[in-house]
Amino acid sequence: MTSARTANMALTFSDEQAMILESAKSFCSDRSNISSVRSLLTSENGYSADVWSEMVALGWTGIAMPEQYGGSELGIGATIPLVESMGRHLLSTPYISTTIASQALQRGGSEEQKAKWLPQMVRGSVGALALLDNEDWGATNTSCTLSADFELQGSKLLVNDAAVADLFIVWAEHNGAQVLVLVEATALPASALSKKVLIDETKRACNICFNGVKLSAEAILPNSEAALRDSRLIGALLTAAEATGSSAAALDVVVAYLTSRVQFGRLIGSYQSLKHPTVEMLIAMDSARTLIYHAATVVNDKMLNQDAEIACRMAKAQATDALLFAGDRGIQFHGGMGFTYECDAQLYLRRALWMQHQYGDAQHQRLHLANLLLD
Amino acid sequence: MTINTQSIKANQAPELKEFRTEVAAWLAHNRPADPGFLLPQTFMEVGSEQVLDFLREWQHKVWSSGYLGMAWPEKYGGRGMQPVFQSIADQEMKRLRVPICFNVIGLGWAGPLIMDIGSEYEKDKYLKGILNAEDIWCQGFSEPNHGSDLGSIQTRAQRDGDDYVVNGSKIWTTMGNYAKYMILLARTDVQVERRYNGLSFFLAPMHAEGVTTTPIKKLTGEYGFTETFFTEARIPATSLMGEEGQGWHIAMKTLQYERGAEAGAAGGISILSIVMNDLLKMAQDVEREGQPLLKDPVTRDNLVKFLIEEKALYLAEKRIGIPALCADYPNSLPLSGKLRGTEFFRRMRQYALTLQGAQSSLYVGDDDTLEGGFWQRAYMNNFSTTIGGGTSQVQANIIGEHVLGLPKD
């Protein structure tokens, strides 16, 4: 009874996904308690190399990869419970960057490119997508160029996990076409990367100058256009999954405070002015969770269809708005404590502010949705 | 009443498909002509004899053609079929937007309750009249000043020989002035410690001496509810359902049949559904500066927000069935369903009026209203859902306390 274009109401959850969710929950809660999160805030790379190795050993980096490249071929949808759990415990690793990069490669790469890089990424090599020329996630072209004799000119902004990446997938223009090209980290001088100060201290990103990097025709992904489109949508979905987990965590922090803090002789959670917006947080998080698992159900290894695009964009718009609301109210409801760095509420607000822009903010997603749903 | 519809779906799918085609064809052919008044979207809009007669005739026709009460036994006016057939008929009625089956309290509350726990005498006496729309039923739970807090019910029923003598009043009695019977919750024992244990449940005749009704004019300007007064009213002792003191328990039971034919309801649609497609169609028809509002960027952004919310609402029903995805707050989606749904529709209908511009300042009865004032009526009537059955604010308290574990006021 809904609009024909929103009629896809698929939402299933396989036994494999349920198992992944169970093991992800216990792993993330065990490896990423709040004190270890805090201890990593000022660390160089923002994550524990040991934890990353463990995740690789558990096979998580291969979940969405075809068996021929060493993966378990469960599809990108099967990573959603993992990423949601990471968000729930603020567990940072290069997992999300690498998963998005490997999706771009899998969808747009040649057999040779995939055979060379995908098994390495399954084994823990880090990949990163380099897309941004400026603050606009919705750009339709790039000023970064790959010349006729395959030399790159241009810079990319805010490349996630760039400092530890082994492989970059860079959006450039080549002979008038939009292409993705593979750049090995070893091709860049150390001075090419400049580390950025991020609002979310659990995250790491650099600006990268690619000027003068010499490549060959084999560096170009043959199916770049589809890979660019689909990897941005999958980036939006993974961000949405991480944001949903973080919303649930922010809610936990608020509920813990509302059930322990006494003011004017009462637990503050008994005041409806705090209770009702906290219920709004829950409902917004619930809607986000519903939408990410719907998207997880409709995305697959083929080129993403219109239903999948709608699902990814809806999930992103809902999830990061939900997190922003939870992060914002989380500070307010902690009163004076909320104004301090010591209070954990800040972690979620900072994350919300960082996350809302990844792969396009809510308004950007709705603009695209309007074209998909209303025309 | 538990029937394995899965196996029916698997084994007799062609039969179901055939039935769906049959019922759709019947509905298309037999749907009543435009009656010349705005069709009620809910059973709370039966404010005149004219509307009453129209709906009574329609429900009787649906029943006599075999598309209502299909899963109830033949001896009570049904057809003794699997509930899945009624569900299909209901889906087609919803899809084709035929008029509602208005005897809602009978079809969805009292009827299934009598089927479930009623005596043979009660089944014989009441069920057929519910289906053929001869006997209209109303509900007497809420009381003035007590809203949805049923534990505070004051209406008294005292046993006197073969009768109970009832004193008190009920409010928000939908179709109280047309009903023949009321499912009545009254206090038979004022001594018990727990307030709920003193309540009893009656299938009370409305035409008994001492029962009077006063119509209530709603914010929409029409009638549809009454306040119902019991003044030394005598109702037969046989109208007590179950035993004294079981009233609360039985009243809670009546709520579970709302989930449709599979849960025991007789069937028929009780509301005319209004979905985003209706709003999109309106935004296409209404123009601003020579082009459809659907082209306006701000309108588009708002419409997409509603579409996202609508999609999450429908998909939530699926996620409820996947416990692994509801593990942290298992009661969250079930308990927040009413709040999410009714508040969505309130805001969506309000927005529909906003989009109409100056036209939304007209009202039902003016020739120039868009769709006869459909949206004006839809928005205002929607408050019955955000207020009735526990206001949205009470719902938020319940969710905060029972799902999140926040302290009570």
Can you characterise this structure?
The complex is a heterodimer of chains A (375) and B (409). Chain A has 375 residues and is mostly helical. Chain A has helices spanning 15-31, 34-40, 49-57, 80-88, 95-108, 111-122, 224-258, 272-298, 306-333, 335-338, 345-355, 362-374; strands spanning 127-130, 145-146, 152-153, 155-160, 167-174, 177-184, 193-195, 205-209, 262-263, 266-267. Chain A has three domains: 4-122, Butyryl-Coa Dehydrogenase, subunit A, domain 1, CATH 1.10.540.10; 127-224, Beta Barrel (Butyryl-CoA Dehydrogenase, subunit A, domain 2), CATH 2.40.110; 225-374, Butyryl-CoA Dehydrogenase, subunit A, domain 3. Chain A has a three-stranded mixed β-sheet, covered by helices on one side. In chain A, a hairpin with a 2-residue loop joins β5 (167-174) and β6. In chain A, 55% of the residues are buried. Chain B is α+β, with helices and mostly antiparallel strands and 409 residues long. Chain B has three domains: 5-134, Butyryl-Coa Dehydrogenase, subunit A, domain 1 (Orthogonal Bundle), CATH 1.10.540.10; 138-248, Butyryl-CoA Dehydrogenase, subunit A, domain 2, CATH 2.40.110.10; 276-402, Butyryl-CoA Dehydrogenase, subunit A, domain 3 (Up-down Bundle), CATH 1.20.140.10. Helices cover 42% and strands 14% of the residues of chain B. Chain B contains twelve helices and ten strands. Chain B has helices at 5-11, 13-30, 49-64, 83-96, 104-117, 120-131, 247-255, 276-285, 297-320, 332-355, 374-387, 392-402; strands at 137-140, 156-160, 163-174, 181-187, 199-205, 211-216, 225-236, 240-241, 287-288, 291-292. Chain B has a four-stranded mixed β-sheet. A four-stranded antiparallel β-sheet of chain B has the order 2-3-7-6, with no helix packed on it. Chain B has a two-stranded antiparallel sheet with strand order 9-10. Chain B is globular, with a radius of gyration of 22 Å. The two termini of chain B are 41 Å apart. The interface between A and B is large, with 46 and 48 residues.
